[in-house]
Specification:
The complex is a heterodimer of chains A (about 250) and B (about 230). Chain A has about 250 residues and is mainly alpha-helical. Helix content of chain A is about 80%, strand content about 0%. Chain A is built from eleven helices and no strands. In chain A, helix 5 crosses helix 9 (about 190-200) and helix 8 crosses helix 9 (about 190-200). Chain A is globular. In chain A, about 45% of the residues are buried. Chain B has one domain (about 20-25, about 35-170, about 180-230). In chain B, helix 3 packs antiparallel against helix 4 (about 115-135) and helix 3 runs parallel beside helix 5 (about 140-160). The chains are: A mainly alpha (about 250), B mainly alpha (about 230).
Chain lengths: ~250, ~230
């Protein structure tokens, strides 16, 4: 049981955000809302940095997927460049699903989900806290995988535009994934439930992210890429808004 | 109860007659298409099944919102029934499209964006049914199903839009096809009438199935209720 770090939960964020604190307090209810979001985010990060089990699992899994694709698709140099964006996103999506599943399954198994629901904060703050945590973990995994990917596939992966697509794509995926994971966790076969629920719904993210990053890797003009950027941005906004409104009904007892 | 039973029986008969009439129109009234021949007649039921299937998922979306608003279990029953019927229509649309595509495109299936999106949409609703199956508490099942019906239906237009800039070979008979479309044709007015009549017929079939399915669900719930009362007495 990881119930011991309870007293730590309140102290680290205050220490970490000490300079912002007076300004936040002056801003009223909105600031206290974001403080509770940050507290939940901080709780997830603190728990993860102590155990490191989620990120290490996601990382090893991602590496395996990258390597297995090389054999599965019999890649030569040209083919490797053509499918790089696809492999990158399949990796991100699969490892992201692992992370999403664990992040809510842990809360449920330890009974800490009930504890969170009993806290006097807005339910949507829970959603944003969990969502930001999941997004953050996906970004960390990407931050490590991208350089590795760049070396293994000999491609310029660390261009700013590609990073924009990574940030937006993972945001959308974590945004709708957190909502669906919080539903899947209640179902009987929850570990297989999440990918089945999530993958078809998140297809637009995958399409736009693959097309966008593929375009960046092929050094296409912005005119050709901007459409995918717009699709991703629209998807992110719509789905986070929907999840924000629907989350109340998911956790309602 | 008796009155609504009679209304339902009338609806059943009307639906049967309409289906007969639509089949008659497809084979006898609509003219033979010049280049594709008889196989083009699949088109009337294909379009009707695909459109009404989509409409069924729209109904699930709307009653999902209503359920979350009101909490009335009736909306949940309609949403569930609508997904089941919508899936049947979707499979009919895919199957009839396949039968047409074999002679027209020379293949049963092609990796065309429109076909893929359509199939992924069907899978969203298979997932909807699986989610329902995996949840035991009826209130939670209804709530989660409503949310998934909403989220899933929002995803569909984004997907359709995002693949729009790819060239599709699927013809768009109503509203004009893209340059790459294969197997398109100009509709004469008896063709248009037949198509519209098929769509209306399939909509009535949908309503009829929905009414019967919801009634069945309500009756089975009443049986459960009576059983529980009998056992407790």
């Amino acid at each position: 049981m990881n119930s011991t770090p309870a007293p730590d939960l309140s102290s680290p964020p205050e220490a970490a955000h000490a300079p912002e604190q007076p300004a936040l307090a002056a801003a009223g209810p909105l600031a206290s809302y974001w403080r509770s979001v940050l507290a939940i985010l901080w709780k997830d990060l603190a728990a993860e940095f102590r155990s490191k089990e989620l990120i290490s699992a996601m990382l090893v899994f991602s590496l395996l997927v990258v390597l297995i694709f090389n054999f599965a698709l019999q890649l030569d140099r040209v083919a490797r460049e053509n499918v790089a964006a696809g492999v990158l996103w399949v990796t991100a999506v699969f490892s992201g699903t692992l992370g999403l599943n664990r992040s809510l399954a842990l809360e449920k198994d330890r009974g800490s989900l009930d504890g969170l629901l009993l806290t006097p904060v807005d339910r949507s703050a829970l959603y944003f806290g969990k969502m930001l945590g999941n997004w953050f973990f996906m970004l960390i995994v990407q931050a490590i995988i991208l350089p590795v990917f760049a070396v293994l596939y000999n491609l310029p992966m660390l261009t700013p535009l590609l990073l924009v697509f990574v940030v937006l794509g993972t945001l959308g995926y974590a945004g709708v994934g957190t909502l669906l994971a919080s539903m899947a966790v209640h179902s009987r076969s929850r570990d297989v439930m999440l990918p089945i629920l999530l993958l078809p719904v998140a297809l637009p993210v995958l399409v736009a992210a693959v097309q966008g990053s593929g375009g960046v890797l092929e050094k296409r003009a912005w005119d050709e890429i901007s459409l995918w950027f717009n699709v991703l941005a629209v998807y992110d906004v719509i789905f986070i808004a929907v999840a924000y409104m629907a989350f109340d009904y998911v956790v309602e007892e | 109860m008796l009155q609504s039973d009679r209304a339902l029986r009338t609806l059943n008969v009307v639906t049967g007659l309409l289906l007969l009439a639509a089949t008659g129109m497809v084979f006898l009234y609509a003219p033979l298409e010049r280049t594709m021949g008889a196989v083009q007649r699949v088109f009337y039921f294909h379009v009707a099944a695909a459109w009404v299937g989509l409409a069924a998922f729209l109904v699930t979306f709307v009653v999902g919102l209503l359920y979350l608003r009101t909490g009335n279990p009736r909306w949940d029953r309609i949403g569930h029934a609508s997904v089941e019927i919508g899936l049947v229509y979707t499979v009919m649309g895919a199957a009839s499209g396949s039968i047409w595509a074999r002679p027209a495109w020379n293949t049963w299936w092609t990796w065309d964006p429109r076909l893929i999106t359509y199939t992924v949409m069907a899978l969203i609703y298979v997932a909807y049914l699986m989610l329902r199956q995996g949840l035991e508490d009826p209130n939670r099942r209804a709530r989660f199903a409503a949310i998934y019906g909403i989220v899933g239906f929002i995803s569909v237009p984004i997907t359709f839009f995002s693949i729009r800039i790819w060239r599709t070979i699927h013809p768009v008979v109503v509203g004009g096809s893209g340059d790459a479309a294969q197997g398109s044709f100009a509709m004469t007015s008896p063709m248009l009438q037949t198509m519209l009549f098929s769509v209306v017929t399939f909509t009535v079939v949908y309503i009829c199935l929905l009414a019967n399915r919801v009634r069945l669900e309500e009756l089975s719930e009443r049986v459960e209720h009576l059983k529980a009362r009998l056992l407790s007495a």
